[in-house]
Amino acid sequence: MNVRQIKVLMVRELKDLRFNGQVLLLFFTAFAMIFLIYILNNLTITFSNEQITFFKGMTSLLSFISILVTMYTQGNIMVEEKEQGTGIVYRLMKVRRINIFLAKSIVTYSMSYLLFTIGMIIYGYSLPQILMASIFTIPFFSMWLFIGTAIAEYAKNTIDVSLYGWPIMIAYFLIEGFVYSSLLNKLTILFPNYHIERGLTLIENDDFTSVLKFMVVPFIWSGMALLFLIKRRQKNGLH
Q: Is-annotated flag, keyword Transcription regulation (predicted)?
């Protein structure tokens, strides 16, 4: 890891973001969702005599931010290296892939965290709650960074990133709908949705000591996403 290289790459990425219409659209869409979810917080539908709630305050907002901004932005800015043909230039300059990944991940994470913080303030979180939520969501945001990067490894361009991301987004929100109901209750505990929802609820109730156990499953999913990404890169002969 080369800190100087990472700083240079981050500066370049931040300058490019001003002209990246796709990323800006994702950012402002997620920003609009902060207020939309706040208004539609109690929207429910009935399925098999069970009520399913698709919007639940900060939990739903976190899901939209992590998918729209973290996953899609990371995927888009990673795949741009293929579109622009800068990969060869980086190799000639001996810029390691890990430095490119870290630089882009820091930019993506910063955008996601900014939106998340704005949401927490609007939803009335106190400073201790914001700090605890910041720590609690690290493995969750990391998981989506790895997923976005893995999508970019498969994709040839930003259109492919959009297409490949849709099934993941639909599946995740479908599971989230089950989490908010009693449907498939025993199975949802295997997914990060369940633990994020429980953890944020505890944070809202200032029960910080019980939150840590709900970080375990998101850490496991983050680890699996990282292993999948590493295997994909090894298959492509990338380091």
A: no
Give the chain's end-to-end CA distance (angstroms, integer): 12
CB-facing half-sphere around the CA of 44: CA atoms within 13 A:
13
For 150, counting Cβ atoms within 10 Å of its Cβ (0-12 exposed, 13-18 middle, 19+ buried), the class is buried
Query: Model confidence over 49-80: pLDDT tens digits?
Result: 655 555 677 888 899 999 999 999 999 988 88
Q: Are 155 and 75 in contact (CB under 8 A)?
A: yes
Residue with tokens 């369940």: 194
| Three-class SS state of 55 | coil
Backbone angles phi, psi at 3, to 5 degrees: -60, -40
Phi, psi of 34 (to 5 degrees): -55, -45
- Local structure of 46: helix, strand or coil: strand
| Rounded CA separation 26/140 (Å) | 19
Q: In 3D, which of 123, 150, 111 has the Cα closest to residue 61? A: 123
Indicate the SS3 state at residue 156: coil
Separation of alpha carbons 40 and 57, rounded Å: 9
Q: Which two tokens stand for residue 63?
A: 């899901």
Distance separating alpha carbons of residues 118 and 105, to the nearest angstrom: 20
Residue ranges with strand state E in the chain: 44-47, 50-53
Task: Report whether 25 contacts 155 (CB < 8 A).
Answer: no
Q: What is the pLDDT of residues 139-152, one digit of tens each?
A: 999 999 999 999 99
Q: Residue 59 is encoded by which pair of tokens?
A: 């939990």
